[in-house]
Amino acid sequence: MAKIWRLLETGYNSGSWNMAVDEAILLSHARGLVPPTVRLYGWEPPALSIGHLQSALREVDLEACKRLGIDMVRRPTGGRAVLHDEEVTYSIIIRESDPLLPKSLQESYSLVAKGIIRGLEALGVKAQIRGPARAQRDRVAGVQMGANARISAEPGRNVEVPRRGDRLSGACFDSPAWYEIVVDGKKLVGSAQARLSGVFLQHGSILLSLDVEKQCSVLAFPSERERALAKRSLASRATSLKEILGRDVSFNEVSMAIIGGIQESLEVELTPGGLIYEELETARELISQKYANDRWNLRR
Fold first, then answer.
1. What is the layout of strands, in order, in the sheet containing 47-50?
2. Which of 282, 195, 210 has the alpha carbon at shortest distance from 249?
3. Does 148 fall in a domain?
4. Where would I find the H helices in the chain?
5. Is 285 within the bounds of a domain?
6. b/e per residue 3-39 (b: at least 16 CB within 10 A)
7. Residue 254 belongs to a domain with what CATH number?
8. Which of 13, 56, 63, 64 is deepest in the core (most CB within 10 A)?
């Protein structure tokens, strides 16, 4: 018999609300108040989320964000900056002790990725997990060609390694990392992990379309030449469902495919539900104390 997990489809919300809700679900699951949860959501207005250890003041163009009406929020997970605009965002929250969840970061990422890949197959997209050997070769090549980005050593470990001479930007999608989901070598899904209070959280972005100009406009660069290099890098290293399929793909179409893929791959039953009172109250507190607060968002 399939295990029963909760499915939340929470629609479009602000960056601070989305990050607060993911953490509120994690805390409620740690207390035994809710079952393992899969959540699908969008962002309104668009938001730039930065990794737990990134420097907003050094790596984000805050004036450009304000001018373009783009929120900025710091995630509880690692990795680099992601502009959340035309995408489906997923999160999965499950206890570390759950027998379904592998112990290592790579294996747990692979478990989730297989469900997403199965869903993408239903859309006609042939995606694959990028393994560590290929990623290691790419990192070496990137250093040799002179790249300057801060990259995560592993997805979700909340550790970022400065790489001298690397010309890549602080954007998540400009370089596939270990165990990312790629199509023809270009990243389609960017994800990050955290393990807090004995609970595993992974969330990530499935790009419906990609605006390279907009993504690079909200990141800080030492010169316009560096920005131009980053645009070319991002365009060559990232892709979207629109680019792959040659058509517009709706949020609902992708959501339904991902739900089916996760259920089939993880052998769980996703039962639609809603946020409980405790999660809503916790999320409101986290917004005021953390995710909408400069002490958190600008602390590095």
1. 71-74, 47-50, 82-84
2. 210
3. no
4. 15-30, 56-59, 62-68, 105-122, 132-144, 212-217, 224-237, 241-245, 251-266, 277-286, 294-297
5. yes
6. eebbbbbbeebbbbbbbbbbbbbbbbbbeeebbbbbb
7. 3.30.930.10
8. 56
> What does the alpha-carbon distance between residue 243 and residue 259 come to, in Å, rounded to a whole number?
22
pTM for the model: 0.86
Instruction: Classify residue 73: in a domain, yes or no.
Output: yes
Q: Does the residue 279 lie in any domain?
A: yes
pLDDT confidence of 198, banded at 50, 70, 90? very high
Q: What is the mean pLDDT of the chain?
A: 86
Please state, as a whole number, how many other Cβ atoms lie within 10 Å of the Cβ of residue 53.
16
Beta bridge partners of 291: none
Structural domain count, the chain? 1
Catalytic machinery residues: 172
- Expressed as residue numbers, the domain containing 201 is 3-126+189-220+249-297
For residue range 270-285, what is the model confidence (pLDDT) as tens digits?
A: 999 999 999 999 999 9
DSSP tag of 208: S
Cβ 109 vs Cβ 193: under 8 Å: yes
Q: What 3-state class would DSSP assign to 12?
A: strand
Quote the Cα angle for 141-145-151, to 5°: 65
Residue 107 has pLDDT above 70, yes or no: yes
Better pLDDT: 153 or 291: 291
